[in-house]
């Protein structure tokens, strides 16, 4: 009988503790954020489709597509170059003249979604290896820029 009493008391204590923990997550005034916090350095290089469109209307922008070759061939921004992590060496060699020519222009690297890590990687490589600046990462869908471009026409 003692084992059952000890087991039931243990279960009761664990249950009360879990309920208290769950309530504190939702009700505590200083509860931690349950989302990924972006560093200020990373935020510095993010650009929204609206701002990218405004930037492109003011000056020449080099658009870099960080997606796969297959997705690039299915559709991309006009005048964009393909530069992805999987084919980095070959694509760098193929696009070197264009990259050198565009050294003084802002660069916007895009992918399919705002959470795509491919564009962040390519942007970082362009900054570190080639010394290009500014190199932004598009935080949104690149198709929004195509829609914005049609509005300007």
Description:
The protein has 153 residues and is α/β, with parallel strands linked by helices. The chain has two domains: 1-35; 40-152, Oxidized Rhodanese, domain 1 (3-Layer(aba) Sandwich). The protein contains seven helices and five strands; from the N terminus they run ααβαβαβαβαβα. It has a five-stranded parallel β-sheet with strand order 1-5-4-2-3. Helix 3 crosses helix 7. The protein is elongated. The protein starts with a helix and ends with a helix. The mean pLDDT is 86.
Strand content: 5-15%
Taken in chain order, the helices and strands follow as HHEHEHEHEHEH
CATH superfamily of the largest domain: Rhodanese-like domain
Largest sheet: 5 strands, parallel
Shape descriptor: elongated
Task: Quote the distance from N terminus to C terminus.
Answer: 83 Å
| CATH fold-level label of the largest domain | Oxidized Rhodanese, domain 1
Percent of residues in helices comes to 55-70%
Supply the CATH class of the largest domain. Alpha Beta
Structural class: alpha/beta
Give the number of DSSP strands: 5
Mean pLDDT figure:
86
Strand sequence of the main sheet, in spatial order? 1-5-4-2-3
Secondary structure elements and pairings:
Elements lengths: L1 H26 L12 H5 L1 E2 L1 H10 L3 E4 L3 H6 L6 E2 L5 H14 L5 E4 L6 H14 L4 E4 L4 H10 L1
Parallel strand pairs: 1-5, 2-3, 2-4, 4-5
Helix pairs in contact: 3-7
């Amino acid at each position: 009988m003692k084992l059952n009493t000890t087991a039931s008391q243990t279960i009761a204590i664990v249950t009360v503790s879990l309920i208290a923990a769950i309530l504190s997550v939702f009700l505590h005034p200083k509860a931690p954020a349950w989302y990924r916090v972006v560093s200020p350095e990373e935020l510095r290089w993010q650009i929204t489709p609206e701002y990218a469109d405004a930037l492109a209307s003011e000056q020449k922008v080099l658009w870099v597509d960080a997606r796969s070759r297959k997705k690039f061939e299915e559709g991309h921004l006009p005048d964009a170059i393909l530069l992805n992590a999987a084919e980095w060496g070959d694509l760098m060699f193929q696009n070197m003249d264009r990259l050198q020519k565009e050294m003084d222009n802002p660069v916007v690297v895009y992918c399919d979604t705002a959470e795509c890590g491919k564009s962040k990687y390519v942007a970082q490589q362009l900054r570190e290896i080639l010394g290009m600046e500014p190199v932004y990462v598009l935080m949104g869908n690149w198709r929004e820029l195509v829609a914005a471009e049609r509005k300007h026409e």
